[in-house]
Hints:
- The first copy, chain A, folds into three domains: about 80 residues, Winged helix-like DNA-binding domain superfamily/Winged helix DNA-binding domain (Arc Repressor Mutant, subunit A, Orthogonal Bundle), CATH 1.10.10.10; about 100 residues, 3-Layer(aba) Sandwich (D-Maltodextrin-Binding Protein, domain 2), CATH 3.40.190; about 100 residues, D-Maltodextrin-Binding Protein, domain 2.
- Chain A is about 40% helix and about 25% strand.
- Chain A has ten helices and 15 strands.
- In chain A, the strands form four sheets. In chain A, strands 4-3-5-15-6 form a five-stranded mixed beta sheet, covered by helices on one side.
- At the A-B interface, helix 1 and helix 4 of A face helix 1 and helix 4 of B.
- Chain A binds a DNA duplex (30 and 30 nucleotides) through helix 3.
Amino acid sequence: MTGHLERIKTFMEVASAGSFTAAARAQGSSSSAVTRHIADLEQTLGVQLFVRTTRKVSLTQAGAVYFEKVHPLISALAAADDGARAQQKALSGTLQVSCPLSFGTRFLQAPLTEFAELHPGIDLRINLTDSFVDIIKDGYDMALRISAAPADKSTIWRKICPVPRCLVAAPGYLEQAPPLATPADLPNHRCLSYTNQSDGDTWHLAHHAEETMRPVRLTPAFACNNGDLLAQMAAAGGGIVLLPRFIVADALAAGTLRTVLEDWRAPEIWLTAFYPPYQKLPLAIDRFTDVFEQHAGQFGL
Amino acid sequence: MTGHLERIKTFMEVASAGSFTAAARAQGSSSSAVTRHIADLEQTLGVQLFVRTTRKVSLTQAGAVYFEKVHPLISALAAADDGARAQQKALSGTLQVSCPLSFGTRFLQAPLTEFAELHPGIDLRINLTDSFVDIIKDGYDMALRISAAPADKSTIWRKICPVPRCLVAAPGYLEQAPPLATPADLPNHRCLSYTNQSDGDTWHLAHHAEETMRPVRLTPAFACNNGDLLAQMAAAGGGIVLLPRFIVADALAAGTLRTVLEDWRAPEIWLTAFYPPYQKLPLAIDRFTDVFEQHAGQFGL
DNA sequence: TGATATTATCCCACAAATCGGGATAATTAT
DNA sequence: ATAATTATCCCGATTTGTGGGATAATATCA
């Protein structure tokens, strides 16, 4: 029962050549193989496909009908194979990318525009969200994330660049707030926590180049999974917040926020690209990563 | 490289089931077989079809495209197989039959009409000719012939019924002709020979129930490959002719021809059906033979 | 957080299918 | 009549495929 397709191919060869031996030659096999292929096919179909003497081979009516039906199918199958082969190197189709919202609205336009110009055949689908999508289940080709240590073992990931963070608060808040000289003072403050990663209610801070991080448990006054809204809350005097610098850069320049505890640093977090566990990335994904990384140097994080 | 179709089937099974082991169960094989089928397919296509961890299996974009292309093709292939299977028992399609002209014009209408009523799905193609067609090359499903001993080894044949022959001449011819008492007198006569079979210029005759035939070499006055025309020539006084009785029956009744040498008989010839060298005849051919044989008893040959 | 269960993959020995070559019988061409 | 071509059959050898167990990874559940 195995090798059905090969038998059909032999059948088509014989039908075209009009001879078993000619088909064997054309196929690079032996005449016994051809005989058996046809015999087996006739057996499994229960129909005689050829009427044959030792000198003449001719399609039966059933054989002719079968040939007509099967011929375009085999061609289409081969075409499907070729199409699949081409897909690996295809710069077409769709490219589904997930990206954090705050980051995407600030930095994605330039690389996207360039990529779209370079590869107009690719249909870019960008999903801006701050939640961690299931790359495999939801069919993403790439997911950009800003996180500490990629622990995901079911994906491929690649660090793009570090994302500096800083502690900020509104000048108005600080004026009326308790003193703030070291992280030990933080529990007395209103702190706004980012609730996407695991534990937003604990900050880890280290002094200068000190190695070990010290955990600081805070009493959250407000929690949100979006950095921009956290920054707005802080600017409105909501409290202290630990955020990527790029999110608060404008507010810092405008003076609506200012940094606190500048001598302390939080653990490094990275802009990281996650991919489905391909053994070899399709070319389109590769190209997108190239373009994106090229722009990453100019983000000024 | 062999077993491509089986691999594709496994691929489709996995794509549907969303799991290798589930596909293995559904297919009645082992998970190792499934793994290898997919791996081999990916190898030959050069594309990763599934993105998989030990817990999740998901189609890649290339895999999804391949699935969409391949799915209808596999179904169509299976349908083609089923179609071929049905052909053996099909009472549809065309039935190409060759038949001698003189015979066909006299006896074919009734069985054809009945068969057409019984099997309206079959497209009957009757070719009336007195020459021996190449059943295999010209794609006939059946060829009726009137001949002595079927020597054709590349076909299947089946005797339907004997076709009595008789020697006849016009009364007008006989009045002015030399005496005719035994075959030995024939060389002195004008004889009309039928030139389809091998040797029309030699008649073999035996007296009564005598066993051995005696060859009589004649001097042909006219030769033709059509019995009706020979009969007309004889009726016009052209000479003596050896013809199937059914051809001259009307002329005998009308008196335009009468039999001679009634005590002598020519070798038996048979109405015979020839078929392509099928190992098992398709049902449509069988049915046609049935109807035809049923009528053959009433031909009154 | 730790233990359990599920899963894809790898490895290995065994079984099965396939192949090619030679022999055979049939048939056509010379 | 002879030779050449052809489909088929048979047989030994090779290739291929398979299933079961082991393994590593991962998700689920307590």
